[in-house]
Amino acid sequence: MLLRYTLMGFERNYQIKYPSKQLNYFSTLHSDNRLNHWFVTGLADSEGTFTIMTDQNQKRTLGWRVQAKFQIGLHKRDLALLLQVQQFFGGIGSIGKSGNMVFYSVSSVKDLTNTIIPHFLKYPLLTQKAADFLLFKAIVDLIINKVHLTIEGLNQIINIKASMNTALSQIVKSNFSNIVPVNRALINTDNIPDPQWITGFVNGEGTFDIKIYRSKTNTGYAVQLRFRIPQHERDTKLIEVLIKYFGSGVIEKHTKFPAVTLVIVKFSHLIEKVIPFFELYSLIGIKQTDFLDWCKIAKLMTNGSHLTIEGLNLIRTIKGGMNKGRPTE
């Protein structure tokens, strides 16, 4: 999560507006695969950001430029999924690239007002990111009404931004005294409104991985399947709701960072609950490919193949090509 926030903002030099012909071509290929509304919200809950940029610009009356941006960032292997997101929102915004990451960005006030904000009002975010969205919306409303063009309005925006996800820059702090951060809402999610939200969320944050460790078995090793969803500790309550939803799992706290992780390792629960869920509500892109490979290993374990040298070697091979081991091209 820290890496994702560090990357935000650097993609501006790589903005690419995908031509309508390419979007139409993509639409033709996936005409029956329009993304689910709750899937998009879940994906945004995991990989999206609502950002307000304030920087000095002498061409502006007050010497400051204020810009709102909604963005979803994924690994470049999931460019096709970002194109689907762009298609879902009617082709607005642009796709940008920075290193191994690709970003879908919308910064037009008109598009934010007419498309992005209405979506998240109707299909609300469930993580504490929803608080950022509410503050983001408040600033967009001020921009629409031209309030940001007055010194009073600019100060109001700075006070709101001070309570959002990213800290104020030193330049902003040094130019605006008497900054008073506004109250930030505490999001209290006590249920999952739609299973597709989970699929979208896991598409971004979840991992299907395999742990192979030394053990007193015939092969000298044991195999453990794991399903995990990491999250900032401020969303511990949401992780508890997910554990209740699946009827399985424990919460592990990170020893160095303010993070928690939902972990499900009980084999019977993975076979009876996790796998059937994602077979019914399919993941998309690379995460789906990893899930299918993970299921192959689950099947090998069900048949007892992991107890043989041949089966263990096959599992190692499959594991080696998953997640970070999967070719990037």
From TrEMBL:
<dbReference type="Pfam" id="PF00961">
    <property type="entry name" value="LAGLIDADG_1"/>
</dbReference>
<keyword id="KW-0378">Hydrolase</keyword>
<comment type="function">
    <text>Mitochondrial DNA endonuclease involved in intron homing.</text>
</comment>
<dbReference type="GO" id="GO:0004519">
    <property type="term" value="F:endonuclease activity"/>
</dbReference>
<keyword id="KW-0255">Endonuclease</keyword>
<dbReference type="GO" id="GO:0005739">
    <property type="term" value="C:mitochondrion"/>
</dbReference>
<protein>
    <submittedName>
        <fullName>LAGLIDADG endonuclease</fullName>
    </submittedName>
</protein>
<dbReference type="InterPro" id="IPR027434">
    <property type="entry name" value="Homing_endonucl"/>
</dbReference>
<keyword id="KW-0540">Nuclease</keyword>
<feature type="domain" description="Homing endonuclease LAGLIDADG">
    <location>
        <begin position="41"/>
        <end position="140"/>
    </location>
</feature>
<feature type="domain" description="Homing endonuclease LAGLIDADG">
    <location>
        <begin position="198"/>
        <end position="297"/>
    </location>
</feature>
<dbReference type="InterPro" id="IPR004860">
    <property type="entry name" value="LAGLIDADG_dom"/>
</dbReference>
<keyword id="KW-0496">Mitochondrion</keyword>
<dbReference type="InterPro" id="IPR051289">
    <property type="entry name" value="LAGLIDADG_Endonuclease"/>
</dbReference>
